[in-house]
Design brief:
The chain has 124 residues and is mainly alpha-helical. Helices cover 66% and strands 5% of the residues. It has a two-stranded antiparallel ribbon with strand order 1-2. A hairpin with a 5-residue loop joins strand 1 and strand 2.
């Protein structure tokens, strides 16, 4: 359905308004944090392996390795971070609470990514 605005231009009234600057910034921050998780994981693993115990675990394995967190903790942190990233990216801007939801999802994503990196650090 088209409608003529005050300047005489035809405009589609079904088209949602463009995203606000805050929404764009939150989306960019979410993507930036997700991309930086990969090099952050590599650095955390290198720090973990560079310790004496981490080096022994890497070289000899098995009994030389200390107690490490279970695999479900890693998976849960990554899945929660992924879901929070998707919420930040795909919440429609038409709702009144969209900015609060995006902000909360971004903080949740950052917390889950930090928890994942701490788990990687604890491997050594």
């Amino acid at each position: 359905m088209n409608k003529v605005d005050h300047a005489g231009w035809m405009r589609d009234v079904n088209t949602p308004p463009p995203a606000s600057r805050t929404a764009v910034r939150l989306r960019l921050a979410s993507v930036f944090a997700a991309v930086l998780l990969i090099p952050g994981t590599v650095v955390a693993w290198l720090v973990s392996v560079s310790t004496e115990q981490g080096g022994r675990c890497l070289m000899y394995g098995g009994d030389a390795c200390g107690a490490s967190p279970s695999g479900w903790a890693f998976v849960a942190a990554l899945v929660a971070a992924f879901v929070a990233c998707c919420v930040t990216l795909f919440v429609p801007s038409r709702t009144a609470r969209a900015e609060r939801v995006r902000r909360a999802a971004l903080w949740t994503q950052l917390a889950m990514e930090a928890m994942f990196l701490v788990l990687v650090l604890s491997l050594g």
